Amino acid sequence: MAEYSTYGSVAVLQVNNPPLNTFTRHVLQALVSGLERAQRDPAVRSIVIAGKGPTFPAGADLEELLGTAAAPLLSNLRMVDKHVDTCQKPIVCAIHGTALGGGFELALASHYRLAVPSATLSLPEVHLGMLPGAGGTQRLPRVVGVKSAIQLITSGQDIKAQQALTLGLVDKIVQGDLLKEAVSFARSVEGRPLEDRRISQRTVPDADKVDEVVEATRKTILRKARGAIAPLTCVQAIQASVLPFAAGMAREADLMTYLMTSWQAAAQQYVFFSEREVRQWSHPRDKHINFRTAKPTVIKSVGVVGAGTMGAGITISLLQAGLKVVLLEVNKKQLDKAIAVIQKTLRQKSASQKMSQLTTTMDYSQLSDVDMVIEAVFENLRLKKEVFRKLDVITKPQAVLASNTSGLDIDKIAAATKRPDKVVGTHFFSPANVMRLLENIYGKKTSAETVATVMQLATTIGKVGVLVGNCAGFVGNRMLGPYRSEALFLLEEGVDPQDVDRAIEEFGFPMGPFRMTDLAGNDIGWRRRIEARLTTEHGPPPDTPALYRRGDRYCPLPDMLCLQGRLGQKTGAGCMMLQEAKDDLTENIYIRFRTDGSVFDLRRLLAHTKTLEELILDLLFADDCALLAHTEAALMSHHAPSMCNRYDPGSRTALPDPVVLQMIQDYRQEHGFKKRTISSQEIVERCLYSLINEGFHVLDEGIASRALDIDVIYLFGYGWPRHTGGPMYYVERVIGLEKLLRSLETYSARYPNHSHLQPSPLLRDMVAKGGSLAALGTTDSKL
Ligand SMILES: CCCCCCCC(=O)CC(=O)SCCNC(=O)CCNC(=O)[C@H](O)C(C)(C)COP(=O)(O)OP(=O)(O)OC[C@H]1O[C@@H](n2cnc3c(N)ncnc32)[C@H](O)[C@@H]1OP(=O)(O)O
Ligand SMILES: NC(=O)C1=CN([C@@H]2O[C@H](COP(=O)(O)OP(=O)(O)OC[C@H]3O[C@@H](n4cnc5c(N)ncnc54)[C@H](O)[C@@H]3O)[C@@H](O)[C@H]2O)C=CC1
Q: Which of 172, 213, 548, 608 has the greatest number of beta carbons closer than 10 A?
């Protein structure tokens, strides 16, 4: 637990609690005993504390901290802190690996800190809904000042050894044998006065600015982490660091108690464990196929097909993980643009050597040797099937073929090949090199080995892989459907897009549904609806009532906006919406043939073709002309105004657009909707409860095996506020299943034709029988 040894006058205490040397009460007890022994022994003149194996202690053991052992754990932790801080013999911490939370706090309580260059320090408690409650909020500001301490503690960010040296958090970076160096360092400081080495005795350097700093940070936190109590409570604790040390510690302890008993801390700790538990996947339809039984294929090289937004991001992710990539694109201009984006991003990450792992091509035969292909071409089933047919012929037989489709049928794509067992969905999220989620979709014939391979790929590239079943939209986008529909229905009834966004953002989402659509592009959903024959490029399908599709309520507002060229704010650089371009439709929508440079009005072309997708397909496969459709499609949206908001040139701030507001008002009038005042609570409930209700359907159908899979998808792919634990956790632990059911019953009685408000049978059943979401699923839960 804590091994004691002596090297002449130096006592060495090595924490030995593999794999992370976390502090359990027994580890802490052993540390206390070791410290007492060292203090008692007159032959010992200095002490070194280190971690055995791969790391210095990574903090308190969460399972103990959250369970019944919390009280003895905390009291032992305080005892260690006291022993260290008051010790009359110099204590040197020798840091390697990750000194996190209580581990870093122990180091701060010591007199000297040495670290290897690769060491990382941090106080990540805020991510667990807590604060650094072992003196971290009091000692860190005494070293780095209140301003930096607030920044480091409220972000929980990593501090690399070199940065720690600059900040004065470590005294020396050790290049060679850490323990040997620490012992000799300890020997060199024996007998020196210790008072100025005790951080607790120092004063905060920027104490006079504390109120100013706190006020400024509060505003940032309220904007960035709306609804989360831990960051603001951390600030309160840090604010107390200007008081005498003992008073500050007492304040820290009170605030820690408050946080530890809050529902948000429990929610965030659930997130921590769920993020890890999704790796322990099992096949929802056959529990014998799971992470233990299925062996992944080793992937060393990956082909990426399509160098658009997603292809470029996926390529960056793969290169950063050290994989070889062959990036294929049919449009030379697009390929060049992607290469520039990849180069720039890798350069920013100081990873230019990774570019040597990249081959770019327009020739499919270059994919003959890769271990796996990830397809990221346009979202069109016919095109994807065509691409997979080609890949099946060209790639080696054992290669895995994955599609990045955001919702198309994996089985249909697989059927285009002679290796459906090797076909799988790998749904990345935009920006693919930033977003942590990888939604992996197995088809009817996907083999266990293929599933294991893509789940392993997620880990290899630093993503959180979640295994889900195949259905339209899979888990994430399928649940988003009802949420978006309900947001639109709210517009019909009287609220403005900005009201909906505000309510959802106040709940904690970084962006409401309308700002999100503006950013992603309103045309994405439009194309999907056109493909699903819910609408056409010219308006509702013939003989279709304006407000209904297949018997269900439908809001055509987004289609109407698209028809007006209001496609949203694209994520591309320099993209902005110009007020003057609003009504300029024909100029934006065109396709240019490279052969003679002639420009065709897309609207006129469409009049002779079935769908926009089919037109693009025809052009892609035509030999006599190279299509600039992608560029033109981007152009279309670059120049078009946004769906619901106005963006001043150079700004991403959404402003209400009077033209859109007028259009919604006219629409209400035309369809006889009476404007009424709707509360933020109703907005949040109708949008989020309908999304969560769909989550119950998803569980019922076995598309997701566990509620935690859904939570992880929403937390890591859709910006669901982390402090609430995810949609399913939130509804069960905070709202209550019974309340959800009653609310859905009320809303569905009021809106009987909003089918997504009809409570799911699983929800009804669970309320009737008192079931719990945590109990559903396949693996043993830690919680
Ligand atoms: C007045 C009141 C006084 C209150 C005093 C409170 C004292 C405090 O200030 C409170 C604390 O210390 S809270 C803990 C702070 N430490 C952390 O948050 C570290 C969390 N861990 C990590 O970041 C990564 O695991 C890490 C970077 C360390 C390693 O990452 P890897 O990717 O290498 O490994 P993982 O897959 O994440 O982890 C391996 C297994 O270990 C489990 N685990 C990780 N951290 C744990 C921890 N702190 N406690 C218990 N289990 C932990 C993790 O779940 C995983 O388990 P399996 O999935 O079963 O393998
Ligand atoms: N953009 C997003 O936020 C997300 C998109 N997706 C999915 O990823 C896929 C790609 O989306 P984006 O990157 O946004 O599209 P995009 O339009 O930016 O890029 C598609 C690229 O594929 C290329 N392409 C077309 N046919 C090709 C072929 N036969 N061979 C090689 N390249 C070909 C195009 O020239 C274009 O560069 C779609 O299935 C989409 O639904 C998934 C998650 C998020």
A: 213
